[in-house]
Design brief:
The chain contains 20 helices and 24 strands. With 668 residues, the chain is of the alpha+beta class. The protein has 5 domains: 244 residues, Heat Shock Protein 90; 139 residues, Ribosomal Protein S5, domain 2; 67 residues, Rossmann fold; 111 residues, Heat shock protein 90, C-terminal domain (Four Helix Bundle (Hemerythrin (Met), subunit A), Up-down Bundle); 39 residues, no CATH class. The protein has a 10-stranded mixed β-sheet, covered by helices on one side. The chain has a 6-stranded mixed β-sheet with strand order 17-16-19-18-21-20. Helix 1 packs across helix 4 and helix 9 crosses helix 14. It binds adenosine-5'-diphosphate and magnesium ion. Adenosine-5'-diphosphate (ADP) binds next to helix 2 and helix 3.
Length: 668
């Protein structure tokens, strides 16, 4: 084909994304420029990196990112002299969707479009910024895009061209300068929407200042657009071309705190996090002494969509050395349980081409990390003390991640325990452990905790009955990670944390305990009959002190792995982890238990006893929100019970002694 044109199809998902870009309306389409400038800046970073080991790649002149407009042709160009792309890289980078962020964005857009068609207005415009959607966002403003590029060190260039349809073309481009030129042919005015603003130099200046001011490389435009503006900084590129520099390039973290406005902090955060919102908290400090560095960290206000994706970055802090970007997602600077923190650390005394291996052993870096973690935890403690509402917002978004720290970081366990917010039986608002302890009545000697999966089920769990009757508040632990938290956090300020759905729970006096044990002996035939009937489903049947109203409840033997832990064991070992068998704990004071005893003594194999045993287990499972072993049979038994029951006053239905006369003598 020689230099002939080769056509290729976009990957199906790119195609969908482009359709949506072209046909939908966006709240912030101007961000395409930010995306192109950031790509150019990445390309310059990468060239500088490769040139560390291959100096011959270094471009002749100073690095730059050039914006050019040609209003006559309706063309806007973003040019850089960075790393460039080979033909293969063009296909790989601009023909497929490699990144999950872009995929998620496509899905959000589709959902928005579907909702809008459904006529309910939809969930509001998707904020593109959150997704870091990158290069393809240019199709919001352009109906044709050309990328002319030459990879550093390569002799031939290549041109990529697309109109956003199913195909794009590639052709050899012998005259390409090293680097990349992205040309956008801006869409014509349509539906009252004009795209001309992106051809106006002053508007571009505004956008560069807004989104890309701190980009390290000069973003420049030709001098002729700025006649009469002699105050502007100028430079020369490509030997003799005089251009004006639009961005200040002063990294925000290198400036004194007092000089940076909240607005500027927010913009930088938005650039880092691809989040349209302002950060919830900004932490900016400079450390002097043996290890000198500046750190600028942000806590986001909302949870990103991929916080729990296993394949996402475990750190969102970038490392710079003397203002030069070295590494994104530096795990040596921030532990995974603070992966929601966004930010930058700029260290003075590290080598630029530092490798991961060196970083892992670098003591200075460990110190920096400890200090950063402490700063973040201090900021959270302050927020909790001073602004509960804001802290609650933080907690909703990231509490479950912070809890991972409680599990893995023994040294910070106490500090993290103080930051916990827990749902509680004492009200709708979550509480801290300290507040719980403050409220504890005289004589209470443990912090009571219930492990559950959702608030509604947990709050009405039979496990709480006796505790509630005694006026004890119970904390509800509802996140999957809480299983590990409760395992590691055995005490708080010397008080034991007691998981009430596990093991034995003794609230009464020793006398009442021994009384129950006597009764257990007395009721032995019943307990044995129930164990015989339910032995496939429960470990044992016994009496316990947890219940006040319900006849029975399921209790996990102490130390049993909960559902989240079992899921993890299944995933990591690939093995089948059997559901652990629970203990069926009966309320010895419940009238139903007395009735069952009578049946058991009459005949341990009494059919009615068998049915009632199944019902008892079924309702104990239901109260936990757990599935029934045989739902159809359970339904038949309940129906039979309803048919045969005297229509007694329903108010009695959940008080002790309400076993009534209902016979569950269904034939199953
Ligand atoms: P991201 O920048 O997040 O990777 P983009 O959609 O913005 O995603 O870009 C996709 C890829 O295309 C980049 O990762 C990069 O490899 C390549 N690319 C885009 N613009 C340039 C450029 N100006 N120079 C070199 N490579 C580029
Ligand atoms: Mg990009």
């Amino acid at each position: 084909m020689g230099t002939g044109v080769e056509s290729r199809k976009f990957e199906a998902e790119v195609q969908q994304l482009l359709d949506l870009m072209i046909h939908s309306l966006y709240s912030h389409r101007e961000i395409f420029l930010r995306e192109l400038i950031s790509n150019a800046s990445d390309a310059l970073d990468r060239l500088r990196h490769e040139a560390l080991t291959r100096p011959e790649l270094q471009a002749a002149g100073d690095p730059f990112i050039l914006l050019e407009v040609d209003p006559g042709l309706r063309v806007l160009r973003v040019v850089d002299d960075g790393i460039g792309m080979t033909r293969e890289e063009l296909v790989e980078n601009l023909g497929t969707i490699a990144r999950s962020g872009t995929k998620q964005f496509a899905r959000a857009l589709r959902e928005q479009a579907a909702a809008a068609e459904g006529g309910d207005g939809g969930p509001g415009p998707v904020t593109i910024g959150q997704f870091g959607v990158g290069f393809y966002s240019s199709f919001m403003v352009a109906d044709q895009i050309t990328v002319e590029t030459r990879r550093a060190g390569s002799e031939v260039g290549c041109a990529w061209r697309s109109e956003g349809a199913a195909e794009y073309t590639l052709e050899d481009f012998p005259d390409a300068d090293p680097g990349t030129c992205v040309s956008l042919h801006l869409r014509e005015e349509a539906d009252g929407e004009s795209f001309d603003e992106f051809l106006q130099p002053m508007r571009l200046v505004e956008l560069v200042k807004k989104y890309s001011d701190f980009v390290e490389y000069p973003v420049v435009m030709d001098r002729r657009h700025f006649e009469g503006h002699d105050e502007l900084e100028t430079m020369t590129i490509e030997g003799d071309r005089e251009v004006v520099v639009l961005n200040s390039r002063r990294p925000i973290w290198a400036r004194p705190k007092a000089d940076v406005t909240e607005e500027e902090y927010a913009r930088f955060y938005q650039h880092l996090a691809h989040d349209w919102n302002a950060p919830l908290e900004t932490i900016h400090f400079r450390a002097e002494g043996v290890t000198e560095y500046a750190a600028l960290l942000y806590l986001p206000g909302q949870r990103p969509f991929d916080l729990f994706d296993a394949d996402r970055e475990r750190s969102h802090v970038s490392l710079y050395v003397r203002r030069v970007f070295v590494m994104a997602n530096c795990e040596e600077l921030m532990p995974p349980w603070l992966r929601f923190v966004r930010g930058v650390v700029d260290a003075r005394d590290l080598p630029l081409n530092v490798s991961r291996e060196i970083l892992q052993q670098n003591r200075a870096l460990h110190q920096i990390r400890d200090r950063l973690v402490k700063k973040v935890l201090d900021a959270l403690a302050r927020m909790l003390a001073d602004d509960r509402e804001r802290y609650a917002k933080f907690w909703t978004a990231f509490g479950a991640v912070l809890k991972e720290g409680l599990v893995v970081d023994a040294e910070r366990r106490d500090a993290l325990a103080d930051l916990l917010l827990c749902a509680t039986t004492a009200g709708d608002e979550p509480t801290t452990l300290a507040e719980y302890v403050e409220r504890m009545p005289e004589g209470q000697e443990a912090v009571y905790c219930l492990r559950g999966t959702d608030r509604a089920t947990a709050a009405s769990s039979p496990h709480l009955e006796a505790l509630r009757a005694r006026g004890h508040e119970v904390l509800l632990f509802l996140d999957p990670v809480d299983e590990w938290v409760l395992q590691q956090l055995s005490t708080y300020r010397e008080l034991p944390l007691r998981v009430v759905n596990e093991g034995t729970l003794e609230l009464g006096s020793e006398a009442s305990q021994s009384e129950r044990e006597d009764r257990e002996r007395e009721f032995r035939p019943l307990l044995e009959a129930l164990e015989a009937r339910l032995g496939d489903h429960v470990e044992s049947v016994r009496f316990g002190g947890r219940l006040a109203e319900s006849p029975a409840v399921l209790v996990a033997p102490e130390g049993t792995p909960g559902p989240a832990m079992r899921r993890m064991m299944r995933e990591t070992r690939g093995a089948d982890v059997p559901e652990p068998r629970q203990i069926l704990e009966l309320n010895p004071d419940h009238a139903l238990v007395a009735r069952l005893r009578a049946l058991a003594e009459e005949d341990p194999a009494h059919p009615r006893l068998q049915d009632l045993a199944d019902l008892l287990l079924g309702q104990a499972l239901l109260a936990e929100g757990a599935p029934l072993p045989d739902p159809a049979r359970f339904a038949r038994l309940v129906t039979a019970l309803m048919v045969s029951a005297d229509a007694g006053p329903s108010a009695d239905a959940d008080s002790p002694g309400a076993a009534g006369d209902g016979d569950a003598s269904a034939e199953a």
